[in-house]
Write a structure and sequence with these properties.
By secondary structure, the protein is of the alpha/beta class. The chain is built from six helices and seven strands. One of its GO terms (biological process) is midbody abscission.
Length: 229
């Protein structure tokens, strides 16, 4: 499987499809790392480690892609935005967003945005086991609803074998999402880039692909993914 992933990565590289090739390189590296852990022969381990180092060199180019979401644009639901980065090797996710909280406006509870993001992770194809959330406390009377909502999401995820670790910070400002396959996505508005629907029974209320968006930018980076070999 690792060899097939590497072959595909080279083909995509030659075709200048660099984003897809990086995904395949990373998948191949992770598969080879699994082989290293299972191999008892030290000579074979050494050869595998050399090959992995070479592949890391090839896949270590700096990558940056920017997506601009225009005002009132549609078609930018979470699955459409994140699916190509959620490969099968993704098992851990970090979400940093200061506004995962309850908002006292009809149909605009930002906790639902985070819940829908989690639903996307549950559906796969990735096999997420841990989600780390760093956010800030809601101010005033909304704090109890925020904590209650997050605890309910935490319990629901546990039913799917996923652990949600929640931390709070009063100084968090950055908004970013990281996957343990090396991809990092920064959205100017965090997960809250959707406009308020016109009503509870209007198109786009349930399906975020049909929900108009606020203007924002999405920056996608790939960082060298290092593990002990």
């Amino acid at each position: 499987a690792g060899a097939e992933a590497m072959k595909r990565a080279v083909e995509l590289d030659v075709a200048s499809r660099f984003q897809e090739s990086l995904v395949c390189y990373q998948e191949g590296i992770d598969l080879l790392l699994q082989v290293v852990k299972a191999t008892k022969d030290e000579a074979k381990k050494h050869r595998y480690r050399q090959k992995i180092s070479e592949l890391m060199f090839f896949s270590d180019g700096k990558y940056h892609k920017q997506i601009r979401i225009e005002e009132n644009a549609t078609g930018f639901g979470y699955e459409k935005l994140f699916h190509e980065y959620l490969t099968e090797i993704v098992s851990e996710v970090w979400v940093e967003d200061p506004y995962i909280r309850h908002v006292h406006q009809a149909s605009r509870c930002l906790l639902y945005n985070f819940l829908r993001f989690c639903e996307m992770l549950v559906k796969g194809p990735c096999k997420v086991k841990i989600i780390h959330l760093l956010t800030s406390y809601d101010e005033g009377s909304g704090r109890s609803q925020q904590l209650s909502g997050l605890e309910e999401i935490q319990q629901s995820l546990r039913n799917y074998g996923i652990t949600l670790n929640i931390e709070f910070s009063s100084s968090i400002h950055d908004r970013e999402i990281r996957f343990n396959n090396g991809w990092m996505i920064k959205i100017g508005r965090g997960l809250d880039y959707f406009k308020k629907p016109q009503g509870r029974f209007s198109i786009g209320y349930c399906d975020f692909d049909l929900r108009p968006c606020h203007e924002t930018t999405v920056d996608v980076f790939h960082t060298k993914h290092t593990k002990k070999m």
